[in-house]
Fold this protein.
Amino acid sequence: MADFRVKRTVHTHTKIRNVPIAVTPEGFWCCPSQVVFQKGDLSRRKERDPSPRTNSMRRQNHQKETKSSPVRSRVVVPDEQRCPNPEPEENHRVEKRVVSVEYGEAGTRDCEVLLSGKQGFTVKLSVHRDVLAGKSTFFGEKIAANSADPCSIEIGDCEDVEIYVEVVGLMYCKDIKQRLIKQSISRVLRLLKVGEALGFNAGIRSCLEFLEAVPWVGEEEDKVVTSLQGLQVDARGVTPLLRRVSPEITTTPSGILSHILDLVVKGNEEKGRREMKTLILKLLKEYKFPNNGTADVCNENLYSSCRSCLDALLLLFNQAAEARSTDTTAYSKESIAKQIALQADNLLWLAEILIDRQAGDEFVHLWSSQNELVMLHPKIPIVSRHLVSCVTARLFVAIGRGEVLPSKDTRFLLLDKWLQPLIDDYSWLLHACRSFDGKLVEEGIGRTISTLPLENQQSILLAWLGSFLKIGDNCPNLQHAFEVWWRRTFVRPFSEEQQCLLESSS
């Protein structure tokens, strides 16, 4: 609302045509089509149909509506807008397009409200000053300042004339909240905005009650929160709604996230655990924590879960090694194997989260330092242990892609400790794990080896060569890394020596 002013009604000789609309027993009018407000040519379009039969049917329908409904509100459109042909240029006048809406019983209205829309038309509301003054502080002030009878109030440059008309109609309702049922959230937000501008407290309260009771879906939530935060009304009515998206007591996500991680890694139902791991991984990827220390706390929680899983895995390895050497029941062995697979899956999931958060360097160091796990690995049946090597494989892939940047010593330690266990389990991983990509893992191992000093490359690749010549395809194929090492060891020094001789001779 850009312009408010009070003035007397200017009476003209414009003829108007009544357009009856549906009303309730309370006299609440149902807002007409937006076309009436946007174009002001409702009658013009009706005149385009020259069929006498159609016009006759419309007159009959109009008479039926008039008899069947106690019309207390109506829309009227000037006859000038129905003229299909413009007047000659010398007699042409720019007619102001006007839509009139009347409330209540005829002859009882003592106030007019003129709404000037930005589309170039005006809506004239014939209303009752006592109703508007009692329901709206804005209208109350304007009416108190205007002693004319009937008084006239004009609101210029209305951005949403249709909603202004509907809000005035709501002032005549006994149960406003009931009228809002099945309305869209967007429309109620528009009603709330205009209701606040007019000081219509009962309407504001009903709109807030509606918004508090209905769910906000998708983008609606952002619209509601933005609209509520922009209101100037009493915070006591808005604050309970905002509790839906922000807690009353400000809390850090540390404790909540730690509890969620603990629930997931200790979950026993396979399908539910798998689905929640996928969901949480997706949420942590899409919604990053703000850079205010919260991200560090999140990483601390993740590493705390990693250490718990590693402790549980070490305990299970000891139990599995003991069960293999003693007369333990097959059921107990199977139960231990399932628990080992569960902890391996947990570690793989946590590693994936940390790698995505660019915080996986410490995890590589943590995994490379598990000397006791490495010593127990050959003592565990391959059917129970092979999934643990998936963690090693994922770290090699991450290093090869540059997703983690561990130190040189950590990279060498990872290869020195865990490459042979991975080679021992490689055949099982290829045939028992559908998600295992051998080519990707081989590329990651080779690139990791190529980052080390030449003497470290040599010791690792010669150890690999011994295994590859024994088991062939059941061993990772690192021939490309071997070629890189070969060129660096034998070809490059000779090329550099030749280059030095050429430079010295010249």
